[in-house]
Amino acid sequence: MAEIIEMPKMTDTMTEGVLVAWHKKVGDKVKAGDILAEVETDKATMELESYFDGYLLYIGVEAGSTVAIGQLVAIIGKQDEDITPILEKYSKKVDKSTVSQEVAAEAPISAAAVNTAQQAHSQEVLVGATVGVAVASDDRIKASPLAKALAKEKGIELSSIVGTGEGGRIIKRDIESFKPAAPIIEMVPPASVLEAGPYVDVPLTQMRKTIARRLSESKNTAPHYYLTMAIRMDKAAEFREQIKNDSGTKISYNDMIIKAAALALKKHPKVNASWLGESIRQYNYYNIGMAVAMEEGLIVPVIKNADAKGLIEISNEARLLSEKARNKQLQPQEYQGNTFTISNLGMYGIEEFTAIINPPDVCILAVGAINEQPVVENGQITIGKIMKVTLSCDHRVVDGAVGSEFLQTLKYLLENPIRMLL
Q1: Element (H, E) at 389
Q2: Secondary element (H or E) of residue 363
Q3: What is the DSSP string of 9-69?
Q4: DSSP-derived secondary structure letter, 143
Q5: Range with the largest mean pLDDT of 67-76, 86-95, 171-180
Q6: How far is it, in rounded angstroms, from Cα 280 to Cα 257?
Q7: β-strand 380-394 against 66-68: which pairing, if any?
Q8: Are 368 and 346 in contact (CB under 8 A)?
Q9: What is the pLDDT of residue 5?
Q10: Radius of gyration of the chain (CA)
Q11: 3-class DSSP assignment, residue 106
């Protein structure tokens, strides 16, 4: 019997993926474990494996297409097996769920548009009741209820759109991607228009969509406040140089901050927590997420149990995870499970900034550059290496005094780095 392969949920936050490339073509023999295709998720590009032996009988989406979780991707079965009943059954399943899937999509719409879509759906069910699916008469344009509602809301004529759904049906993505033909201008535009110049609309990647959604949710739901502290890094610089001379390993300041943060969390468990709505969960492990910049956006690989690891071990692991992140090779277990996050822009010369909390954490530490500045020491002015850090806190969980005490411990450890070894 032929087996259906649907788009799986490859990450905890994935709602859809882009099928980047097929590694097999229709007619190819496949075995369980063979790589069928590459899928770009909101976190990384991952491999879609076959779970069955047989022949690839059907490919449901083209390379480059955006695919929702649960959407038909491929069919594997015996050579020359008739898959028509499966396609017909799946087509009916998709048709019946069109409205609910489109309303649940990430793009927000107004309540009025949803109401209109529901009313249109009721009318469409009556029209298509005799055949069980939505059909179009000669004088009615085939379009999903949500597509009709969105078109009405945006003032778009359905007759000017070519549908890409089943049988040429107009669906939500056709409305969103529709661009009216530019009018012919026979007069010279004003100087302001000429000076504006051309522009480029850059399509959103799955990662960028997820970043936008998650950080918007974080900023809009978690009441942020910010605590900034200056830390002297003279001893940290000396300690770093000593480790390099003794072991031949070059650790970064960020490696030291990761270790210090994990140890500080052990003393301040209220910072190592998540907001659950009806309760606050405090973790007994200390997993530090480190924001890594990529062309598509940010991803946060996680150093697990950082409190129990040495600086050299943290350095090696951080370097490996950063490389895998930039090559989009991270596996889910390598970017999940963070209890605290660090975002470091010091290498860009940024002296001070604030960061948005990375759920499910309740705090994030923004780290600036280390600069030489005049400081007063024992009544004398001297030059010191100063680094500013800013802790963004979720006030539902972390009060000001708690966040301040955490920063004091972090400062003490970085200004006395030998303490991180005790």
Answers
A1: strand 380-394
A2: strand 363-377
A3: --STT-SEEEEEEESS-TT-EE-TT-EEEEEE-SS-EEEEE--S-EEEEEE-S-TT-EEET
A4: B
A5: 67-76
A6: 26
A7: unpaired
A8: yes
A9: 87
A10: 28
A11: coil
240-262 pLDDT per residue, tens = 999 999 888 899 999 999 999 99
Residues 6+ apart with CB under 8 A from 253: 233, 236, 240, 346, 370, 387
What's the pTM? Answer: 0.62
Q: Which domains does the chain have, with CATH numbers?
A: 3-96 (2.40.50.100), 99-177 (4.10.320.10), 206-421 (3.30.559.10)
| Angle at 257 (CA atoms; ends 253, 260), nearest 5 degrees | 135
Q: 373-395, pLDDT tens digit by residue? A: 999 888 899 999 999 999 999 99
Q: Among positive and negative, which fits the CA dihedral 9, 104, 106, 199? A: positive
Which residue reads 């359905």 in tokens?
158
Answer yes or no: is pLDDT of 2 > 70. yes
Contact (Cβ atoms closer than 8 angstroms) between residue 335 and residue 210: no
Q: Which residues are catalytic?
A: 395
Q: Per-residue pLDDT tens for 32-51?
A: 888 998 888 877 778 888 88
Return the structure tokens found at 312.
């050299």
- Within the chain, how many helices (H) and strands (E) appear? 11, 18
